[in-house]
Design brief:
0% strand, 2 domains, 5 helices, mainly alpha, 138 residues
Length: 138
C-alpha cells in the first residue's frame, strides 16, 4: 500500500538523508561561491573541491544504517534489491567505459554522472517494487 505507516527505521533514514542533502546543497553552493570569488590555489582548492562529497558519502552510510536498523525483513529485502539494481546500473556502464577508454581512448563520463545514475536507478527500482507490491495487494 502507498499509505502504510512508516517504520521507525525508515523515519530515521529519511530524516538523516534529508539533513545530509540540505547540508550538501549548503556546502555545494558555498564551495562554488568560494572557488569562483576567492580563487583558492593548492591544497585549499582541493579541500573545497572534496568538501561537497562528504554529505553524499553520509547518504551512502545512511543506507547501510537503515539496513542495520530495519527490523522488517521484507523492507530490508526491498532496500537491498534497490541497492543491487542501482549498483549494477552504475557498475555496468563504468566497466564498459573503462574498456572503451583503455582501447579506443574515449573520454571519461562527465562529472557527477555516476552518482546521479546510481540515485535514478535506486529510485526507479524502489518505485517499481512499490508498484508491484501494490498490484499484488489488490
Amino acid at each position: 500500500m502507498f499509505c502504510q505507516d512508516k517504520s521507525a527505521a525508515l523515519k530515521r533514514y529519511q530524516k538523516r538523508t534529508l539533513s545530509a542533502m540540505v547540508g550538501y546543497f549548503v556546502i555545494l553552493f558555498g564551495c562554488v561561491w568560494l572557488v569562483k570569488h576567492v580563487s583558492p590555489q593548492g591544497w585549499p582548492l582541493y579541500l573545497w573541491a572534496v568538501l561537497p562529497a562528504v554529505p553524499i558519502i553520509l547518504v551512502m552510510v545512511n543506507m547501510g544504517l537503515y539496513l542495520k536498523e530495519e527490523t522488517d525483513e521484507y523492507l530490508r529485502l526491498r532496500m537491498m534489491r534497490s541497492l543491487l539494481v542501482a549498483t549494477a546500473a552504475l557498475l555496468g556502464p563504468l566497466v564498459v567505459s573503462d574498456f572503451v577508454r583503455a582501447y579506443a581512448h574515449a573520454p571519461a563520463f562527465p562529472p557527477f554522472v555516476c552518482f546521479v545514475t546510481f540515485c535514478l536507478a535506486f529510485g526507479i527500482a524502489n518505485g517499481v517494487q512499490k508498484l508491484r507490491d501494490r498490484a499484488t495487494d489488490e
